[in-house]
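Memo to structure team: turn this sequence into structure tokens by end of day. - J.P.
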Amino acid sequence: MTPTADVVFKDEVILGEGAIWDGRRQRLLWVDITGKRVGLFEPVSRTNHWVSVDSMVGTVVPTTENDLLIAMQAGVARLDPSSGRVSDLRQPKEHDAQHLRFNDGKCDPRGRLWAGTMALNSERKAGALYCFEANRPVRCCVAGVSISNGLAWSLDHTLMYFVDSPTQAVDVFDYDVETGEISNRRRACEIPAAMGTPDGMTIDQEGMLWVALWGGSAVTRWDPASGRLLAKIAVPATQVTSCAFGGADLKSLFITTAREGLSAEQLRAQPLAGSLFMASPGVAGIPAEVYRG
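Reply from structure team:
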């Protein structure tokens, strides 16, 4: 039987996203994109604290300091979660914040933040994938992106996995950990449209990829070497957006969902849509990288 995720924080978030485990503080970070909020979820007490910002926020990552890094509509900035203060905005020179917004992002094994954009009207190939690192100009690494989403790096740090959602696939690049350069883009996993659209992504300690499926009511596990589907966890909400391993042993899989685009009838059928879920997939994840800079 297909295991089902359980709700751990019931809410009506329109577009929940960006789940990532903050190992230093033993909490889950996530975002409410259209609600312009960053969530700090404490699994032990099952309480969530929202920090509001003045812009749509696509992703959040912990840093080596006592703050967070967030990717907003205009660019990437620092957020002090205790005061809500946003500072040090960095924007790629080619980024048009009137028509684009930042979406998903992750830090690589050297603490660089990779974050991508998408058009506000969902225009195809209008976005890009950027790399942000300390003491270096922002780099555009992949152009012509439609909806920049999940990112992950192989356990040996030689590969980078990337989801551009409308492609219905996970792509893989050769990755130079020292320079942060990527090359030789190719296909790792093809995801049938009938299963849903690939969204957020994470990797487990066996090197397998976990992909959230928008419209698919599930998180799925894939072997990137063969492209084979290995496992599936059902989620009682159709719009599944991101997933992240967390908990003290990194054996809990946290899952964000959304209510965006659902009709009143669909919402009545899935009252937990927009909530935060958790599953125990039987494998552990790896610690999330933090921004260094």
